[in-house]
Amino acid sequence: METTLTPTPTTQESHSGIPPSLIPLAEESKLLLHSTSTPLGRTSAAREEPLPVLPPDVDRPTFNAAIQELREGLGEEWVVLNTEELDDGWYMEHPNTHDAHHVFPPWDLVSSGVCYPSSTADVQLIVRWANKYLIPIHPISLGRNFGYGGAAPRVRGSLIIDLGKRMNRVLKLDGENCSALLEPGVTYFSLWETIRASGLDLWVDVPDLGGGSVLGNACDRGVGYTPYGDHWANHCGLEVVLPTGEIVRTGMGALPGKEGEDNPTWQSFQYGYGPFLDGIFSQSNYGIVTTMGVWLMPATQHTSYMLTFAEEESYPEIMSLIRPLAINKVLGNVPQLRHAIQELTITGLSRASIWDQPGSVPPEVVRKEVAKLPCGECSWVFYGTVYGPAAFRAQQLKTIKRQFFQLPGTRLFLPSDVPSTHYLHSRALVCSGQPVLRELNWLAWVPNGAHVAFSPICPTGGEHVKKLYEMCKRRCKEFGLDFFPTLCVASREAHVIVELVYDKSSPSSKHAAYTCIRTLIADAARAGYGEYRTHLVFSDQVAGTYNWNGGALMKLNERLKDALDPRGVLSPGRNGIWPRRFRDKGWEMGEGDGRECSTQGVGMKFYT
Ligand code: ADP
């Protein structure tokens, strides 16, 4: 039977749509993932409890009265209760009711409803409303934070503030300053299209997938792959609604411009005067960012390349060779060192097509399959890009080759050396500021594929990488999971991204992924390594590992939280920061939290 799927909207049709040029790719990817899902994994989760799920300590009559009041303030149609079946949808459909890549039961981490502000004034209204009724609110920009919790709030029954739907304008695009001023709903796709339509020769630094919010990704300290890959480092100035409803502007935005205009230096100088407070609005629950300035890279010539390394055990040497090149900026961008198994997964291959036994796919099977691909037999693949005029790039490539070719068996591929469908072409686009949609294909590895990431930070020295790599490999094997390590290299550290792909319809598969990450967080912390970002069900544990001097950092975070959000309404528990009224009441899920993810929920344990 032929499958008909809902068409993917374009950027002209929806704020969260896709550029028309990418529609064929989107359709292909959607079909691929649909073909690997089973009826159990596709079915929306029917819920057997009174709906909507209520926020803690709020009874239904009070909740209903509060919702009525909010509808009067925002308009009836801009407050929608979460009473339908939960549909995980697909990447471009981005459900804003729950976490589509659920680790706990899908109906566990859910909102009571979603509201859609159209302006900063609306956001203030919502925040003041939440303070009046003690209803937790949780902002999302697009809610496509897949692998880290998606659109779900940490506290069941919170009201989602979906900023993207109606606040999605590029407020300013400045070709001379090479910057933009954005609302939360501007996606990488839409910013890229806006820039192209303007005729300006600027790049947008994009992460692996382009459907997320430029502002939301920066606030969660996401990364991309051009020289502007550190998204938070390349933001410039914020407008923020505080948890009590006041608005602040940071950096030069705090200095009023002439005759009520925005300050002309707002997107040029990050610090302004006095303490640099921007940092407290990233990975936190101290404010709702309604506007952000971002720096854009002037387009330049570039050459992407791929290096393959023969030996599995050579990764410490590879990293030791990378370090001086990265620190001296010879590498140019944020390159990736990926295990060769990912050459297989990125093609959309299913695990079952090469191995039908339980447990991790044996290395010799992976090696044999990789050998059939354009990269040939190899163990590691390094994707990099050099920038600038031809002579400059040629010199950089010469240095890079000289360095890496010290390892016997190393090979260099340029885009012209591989077929047009090869992933290197996709990397070449991402590394030159063009959003793509290729990265989803590896979810086809298992049926009903979902993913959750273990993402520690590692100094770029070989001995550190070896420790972390061996730790992750051993634990993945122990839990019967395949191990897909990627190292995203900045100058002095690498973000080690270990994506665990699991079947979200299978309790045992979920259990393996969940328990493996919990174990790895603890293992890594004991060895002195910590995560840069995590799924919201692990945030207490990760925050708890940053505990030098008796947890001094969290004590400071909590003091800030209580001062800024005295009624504890904004995203309680996000990044492990709980407001006073929630603390020590059983919400925290730190190390040793023994609950079973597939049957006991985060909320269910406390609310039934
Ligand atoms: P994206 O869809 O771009 O990946 P999300 O909208 O899912 O990003 O947001 C990622 C994270 O950042 C979430 O934890 C969310 O609560 C937070 N966040 C998103 N937008 C804002 C914002 N405007 N202000 C404060 N926090 C935000």
TrEMBL record:
Keywords: FAD, Flavoprotein, Oxidoreductase. Residues 107-299 form the FAD-binding PCMH-type domain. GO terms for molecular function: D-lactate dehydrogenase (cytochrome) activity; D-lactate dehydrogenase (NAD+) activity; FAD binding. It comes from the Eukaryota. Residues 1-11 have a biased composition (Low complexity). GO terms for cellular component: mitochondrion. Pfam families: FAD-oxidase_C, FAD_binding_4. InterPro entries: Cytok_DH_C_sf (IPR016170), FAD-bd_oxidored_4_C (IPR004113), FAD-bd_PCMH (IPR016166), FAD-bd_PCMH-like_sf (IPR036318), FAD-bd_PCMH_sub1 (IPR016167), FAD-bd_PCMH_sub2 (IPR016169), FAD-linked_Oxase-like_C (IPR016164), Oxid_FAD_bind_N (IPR006094). Its cofactor is FAD. Residues 1-21, 38-58 are annotated as: Disordered. One of its GO terms (biological process) is lactate catabolic process. This is Vanillyl-alcohol oxidase. It comes from Dacryopinax primogenitus (strain DJM 731) (Brown rot fungus).
